[in-house]
């Protein structure tokens, strides 16, 4: 029993916050990046980047979309710049590069831990014969999956690099999940989406996936339901005891 409808033949998992605890590391990197920028711009009126900002504007989105969406919430406009911008460039690309460099250093220092309940669930899904894919906006997915020992489960992966290379729209658009389902040869109606981010749950609903599991890591169960989750759990292991 894996807590999914019998029509589901594939599971598409977000990475940070669903399979691994790296969402907290991303929040840490975003906060340092944005706070440095805001201090330089706002001076004595500095209003720090908060966990609410992370949830509302950044979580689950491709890196550059997160930069644009958060800055727009503060009525800040920066030039786009380009992929070759240095981390010190005051551009959308520069801010994104600075965050990515910082999260890479944090991952090296602190390591990667998978959630124990998520590992149990992946093992159960694999035993049940369902295909497993990972869909993440992170460009660090390969190294994170390897460091967490989860790459052995994954048959298909759509990450930040894939999104950029293929010109896919980021979450809350369903493109990345649909691309992963396509890699697995599964129709959206027969795939389940697992997401902790509101934007990711919206993507699952928009793509008309067969089941959307909201993972409540940020005390937002009500919002996950409102955005389209079929069910909400605090830990994936709870699904091993449920039948929809």
Describe this protein's structure.
By secondary structure, this protein is an alpha/beta fold. It folds into two domains: 10-22 and 113-241, HAD superfamily/HAD-like (Rossmann fold); 24-110, DNA polymerase, domain 1. It contains ten helices and six strands. The chain has helices at 23-42, 51-58, 63-73, 92-110, 116-127, 141-148, 160-166, 175-184, 198-206, 221-227; strands at residues 10-13, 131-135, 156-158, 191-195, 211-215, 231-233. The protein has a six-stranded parallel beta sheet with strand order 3-2-1-4-5-6. Helix 10 links the parallel strand 5 and strand 6. It is globular, with a radius of gyration of 18 Å. The model has no long low-confidence stretch (mean pLDDT 93).
In short:
This protein is α/β, with parallel strands linked by helices and 244 residues long. It has helices at 23-42, 51-58, 63-73, 92-110, 116-127, 141-148, 160-166, 175-184, 198-206, 221-227; strands at 10-13, 131-135, 156-158, 191-195, 211-215, 231-233. It is 45% helix and 10% strand.
């Amino acid at each position: 029993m894996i807590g999914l409808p019998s029509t589901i033949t594939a599971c598409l998992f977000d990475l940070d916050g669903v399979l691994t605890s790296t969402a907290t590391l991303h929040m840490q990197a975003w906060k340092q990046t944005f706070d440095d920028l805001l201090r330089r711009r706002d001076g004595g009126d500095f209003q720090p980047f908060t966990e609410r900002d992370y949830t509302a504007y950044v979580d689950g989105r491709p890196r550059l979309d997160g930069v644009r969406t958060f800055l727009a919430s503060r009525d800040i406009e920066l030039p786009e710049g380009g992929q070759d911008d240095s981390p010190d460039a005051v551009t959308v690309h520069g801010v994104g590069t600075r965050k990515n460099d910082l999260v890479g250093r944090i991952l090296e220092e602190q390591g990667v831990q998978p959630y124990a309940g998520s590992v149990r669930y992946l093992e159960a899904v694999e035993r049940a014969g369902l295909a497993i894919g990972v869909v993440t906006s992170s460009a660090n997915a390969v190294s994170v999956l390897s460091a967490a020992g989860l790459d052995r489960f994954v048959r298909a992966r759509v990450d930040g690099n894939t999104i950029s290379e293929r010109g896919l729209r980021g979450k809350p658009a369903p493109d990345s999940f649909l691309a992963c389902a396509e890699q697995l040869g599964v129709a959206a109606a027969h795939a389940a989406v697992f997401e902790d981010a509101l934007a990711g749950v919206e993507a699952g609903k928009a793509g008309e996936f067969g089941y959307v599991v909201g993972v409540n890591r940020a005390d937002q169960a009500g919002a996950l339901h409102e955005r389209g989750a079929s069910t909400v759990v605090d830990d994936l292991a709870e699904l091993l005891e449920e039948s929809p």
